[in-house]
């Protein structure tokens, strides 16, 4: 997927930016005036993405600030009102889940119940946006220096975590997940997930790559850069997955052993066996013995005995915010000197998030500062300030009690279809509208390198077909599943339940997708109409 | 005769203390879980100590200062180790109310635990909830302090950058016109007059050549 899809598309975007020397709107307008809608669509997608993405930085800041306590606040459950036991919700779920759902998000039972804006996340969101503003304030002059830091620190922390992770008890169980299951490779869903992952991790279609490339020297060898960047991207992904899997194995082993201990305790207490008699090794035989000797009592106790299995613990695949804030914190609280590991981890998360925000911010600002209309009225600092302020104001939605549900909604639906469509139109535009031969000669004039046949084939045929395939798959998936659903936290039961989206949420989803995809045809139509009228005017004047 | 009396006393004891008796509490110890290799064996001497600790706790209750070790009865001792106990009044006729026993045990829980090197989890009194220590709450939550520090640093940095940007722009506006921003992508547009850039014609560094006529003298005065 990397070779077939990632590298060609990355090279294409870098080359377009370097050649046109403008942000996304201007670049596509130069290729063809009908296609400036592509640039606008990129801008809209980047804007929507930046609105919801900074909320992750908010949460990272929140956890970072809370890591300076002993013990860590998510490692112990708070007491209930009369101090006789632990809080009920915390008992049913785990302390890390409780801290995430109750203390951080204060989540409501469903997306309809909005609740009010909560001041603690709102403060952290404001701070997060101030930090982003600080980084993109001066444009690429400052972002270049910031990015040196935000890119190198995560590697440093990952190496530390790699060493720590591999030495944890039970880490090898998680690393066993690395062996690819051959039958999964035959499943087309796996390939589709791989294609989507490459697509979004490289940031294609957001306009950020074009914006950054437009600041390059014209003679810059963007082919070499495209290759290096995509290879490093994938290597980093594999590297961080080693760390993740070892931490995962540690957590799964820990939970499995806890589960076994609970079963042992339950049996010891119910049958008044000698303390320490039941161990992990003789558990099964003793269970059978008890079942045969005291059948009545055993059948009473049996419903409470959970079947502990290491495989099921490992199989609970989590991704996204669940992985970062629940699974990792659970693993961290069991390590020694957990405050240090926690601070390191959330600082790394913060720098990664800031790096992404800087990229998205540049993708938004470059077209705005390039356009003569806006930049003649306002200086660069004011434009970035206004954009940050607007984003922060809209982002307050995500600090409400139902905010996490809206976040998931934005996360799942903002970028998927729109980016696929944008990149498809980009590839077709460069190859067929602008002309592959013309682009090739432009590149040769700029960089002095000839375009090899591999890139030509990829750009003209393979990548567009692949994207069309992905697009069709996602559309059919959405249509076939009927109503879209989301995961809601049930405080009374202590785990997530699936609920349907209400109609207005579905309307918002439709609006999100439409606002970016409709730009392309609408602007094309608009340009056509205005041109048509201009030509008519010229004819009638003559 | 003596045998009959002994039999009577044991029967009364058996009636007072049995599983789920009125005012009886079940106790459960997990010695090996708590102490591992250093675990001691639970024998009659340990039971004696337990009865002594319960009697000690009851003596702290007003009106019960006369409680003796013999008034604490244990029964149904299992290998777990678990057993039931009751506290009787001095006449050994009835058991003391559960509420009194419960409050006495709760008040002295730490002493009882430490006598056996155990804690609330490994020495359990079923139906007597233990009072958990509340977590330490500092007066100002720590996170607000850290937040405040970082917030101030970021605001100051932004203010500095914005001010320096404004100052630089003001200096540029006063300086030679036509020179654009440093990080511009296009080449600097330098106003050109007859192929000679205007900048070097600035009088700042050069000497005035008096051979040339100044502006006023070109037109000879009348």
UniProtKB/TrEMBL annotation, chain A:
Residues annotated as binding Na(+) 1: 201, 233, 356
Residues passing through the membrane, by range: 38-65, 119-137, 146-171, 191-215, 227-248, 343-365, 386-407, 413-436, 457-476, 504-529
Pfam family, one: SNF
Subcellular location field: Membrane
Keyword Protein biosynthesis attributed: no
Recorded topology in the membrane: Multi-pass membrane protein
InterPro entries on file: Na/ntran_symport (IPR000175), Neutral_aa_SLC6 (IPR002438), SNS_sf (IPR037272)
Residues annotated as binding Na(+) 2: 352
GO CC annotation: plasma membrane
One annotated GO molecular function: symporter activity
Keywords: Glycoprotein, Membrane, Metal-binding, Sodium, Symport, Transmembrane, Transmembrane helix, Transport
Descriptive protein name: Sodium- and chloride-dependent transporter XTRP3
Organism: Mus musculus (Mouse)
